[in-house]
Design brief:
This protein is of the alpha/beta class and 415 residues long. The chain has 15 helices and twelve strands. The protein has a single domain, classed as Alpha-Beta Barrel (TIM Barrel). 40% of the residues lie in helices and 11% in strands. The strands form three sheets. An eight-stranded parallel β-sheet has the order 4-11-10-9-8-7-6-5. A two-stranded antiparallel sheet has the order 1-12. A two-stranded antiparallel sheet has the order 2-3. It binds flavin mononucleotide (FMN).
Amino acid sequence: MNVSKAVNIADLRLQAKRRLPKVIFDLVDSASEDELVLAKNIERLRAHTLIARVLQGVPKREQATTLFGRPYSTFFGIAPMGMIGIVRKDIELSLAEAAHAAEVPMILSGASAHALEKVVPKAPGTVWSQLYAASDPKITEDLVRRAEAAGATALVWTVDLPVYSKNDRTIRNGLGIPATLSLGAKLESLLHPTWIKEYLTGEMAKMGHWECYVPKGSSSGEILKFYLSQKNSMQSWTEMETLRRLWKGPLIVKGILNGEDAMRAAELGADGIIVSNHGGYGLDRAPASIDMLPGIVAAVGSRLVVMFDGGVRRGSDAIIARCLGAQFVFVGRAALYGAAAGGMAGASRAIAVLKDEIDRTMGLIGCALNTSLGAHAVRRPAAPWLPAELPDLALEPARASRPGCVGHTIAGVGR
Ligand SMILES: Cc1cc2nc3c(=O)[nH]c(=O)nc-3n(C[C@H](O)[C@H](O)[C@H](O)COP(=O)(O)O)c2cc1C
């Protein structure tokens, strides 16, 4: 695939679709049940409008930012995505290398094909480690210890998948565990020779990060079965105290969708949260993450760093989340489509496309500094289902004037 020809993320998605067998493309492009959340995340972001201020003098736009003491070239990074080894050989290494080259963070999933220890050296300082707490506390402890020893720069605890959701498309496609293909899928995959060659020669479906917890010589299927058996449906906020004790670096809770949970995370010592609905892979009746973001920012103020993911396919989506109080934004599928289509070059293309769109959009709305992006620049669509007492941040009066932008601003932006 010639990823340099991709004009936008939708083009990269089409290139990924061409390269992958249907069952594998569906794995990354689907979500749970009726895929309502997957669609809603995108639709609700698109329903927001940006308000341009003219004659602001914007010869240079600055999207670089600092997060947890580290400088990044922009205010978005790559979200954790597990079980994607089957998509393309070494796909996590490609994502990490692309993130490193672009100076953005990459969160490696706790369900990764490559062990964290193998990924971090390819992208020193770039990789954060995502954790699904295991039902065996000794394994959880070891996963945290390994993250520290390997040099992960932040720990992200995902809390929004206490049980596995149901993915109708994957079930219908007959993709087995481990990633075994039905006869129909095998025949269809013959139409995708570059993928099938990798599949036949590599161990793409192996969950390398968990290999050390099973007897030596275990098959991919045995590793996966053990991983699935460690699903911790019992986890509670008490786990957070343990993690805080074990992990001294930035601790982030991912999968928060309301102010009360965000406050709880802050009280128990989290440094940050990611407002997220797992990109539609969890509860299919969850709200769009963008609709919950302003209320959460209003609830926690500056007590912790509020980050966001869900539905970002354009640079303007990331800007809208920034305007509504997210200090940092993560992209899942947008980067994955790129990496699936073209490995590191494709992931780099996805990052470059989004950065370019952010730059142009900042110019077009007359905002030179990303720290000055605020609620003044965005109009929220009606959301009648949200509680009436939520402040309408778009109408909140100015707290202080900031350089590079005029108008109103909101709590939490620009910390
Ligand atoms: C294929 C795939 C696998 C994912 N696996 C994980 C995971 O292992 N851990 C996790 O916290 N989130 C996981 N997610 C959710 C993402 O981290 C992120 O919340 C979501 O993709 C954001 O939505 P977007 O894809 O619309 O950007 C996964 C998402 C995808 C698409």
